[in-house]
Recover the amino acids of this structure.
């Protein structure tokens, strides 16, 4: 059920970004620097980081790994017109595949993380719930940004 809800939210984000050129995905919505491309990148980074790194303890280098900017707060929320829609969506797909593989291999959702993000390990169930919340929070931003770009509204 958690993976289903997460998939629904990813699909909603993809829909909000569908049909837009790289330049449109990079449009920032004032007064913040949020863009749809930045949200795609950020959610790919957040999902991969929580599931593959924090929970599973992996150190695989994701496709976006070369862009990581340690100490630069908010780097994953920024995108440029040079990042293609295919590239940004590919990063999201990569994170999704890693999540589904790791969840599929876990003996239960009660397994604890290898890293301790808040001073103690968290369960895989908590990580998935956290991701559902993270996507949900940013989908509201995506609604507003898409409407500002071309007037498209809806779920």
């Amino acid at each position: 059920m958690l993976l289903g809800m997460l998939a629904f939210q990813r699909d909603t984000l993809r829909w909000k970004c569908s049909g837009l050129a790289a330049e449109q995905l990079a449009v920032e919505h004032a007064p913040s620097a949020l863009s749809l491309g930045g949200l795609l990148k950020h959610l790919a980074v957040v999902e991969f980081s929580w599931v593959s790194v924090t929970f599973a303890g992996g150190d695989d280098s994701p496709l976006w790994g070369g862009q990581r900017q340690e100490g630069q707060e908010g780097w994953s929320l920024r995108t440029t017109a040079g990042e293609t829609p295919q590239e940004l969506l590919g990063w999201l797909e990569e994170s999704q595949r890693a999540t589904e593989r790791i969840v599929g291999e876990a003996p239960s959702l009660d397994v604890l993380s290898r890293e301790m993000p808040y001073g103690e390990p968290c369960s895989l169930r908590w990580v998935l719930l956290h991701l559902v919340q993270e996507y949900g929070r940013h989908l509201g931003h995506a609604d507003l940004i898409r409407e500002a770009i071309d007037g498209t509204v809806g779920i």
Summary: The chain has a mean pLDDT of 90. Residues 2-57+84-150 form a domain with the Four Helix Bundle (Hemerythrin (Met), subunit A) fold (CATH 1.20.120.450). The chain is about 55% helix and 0% strand.
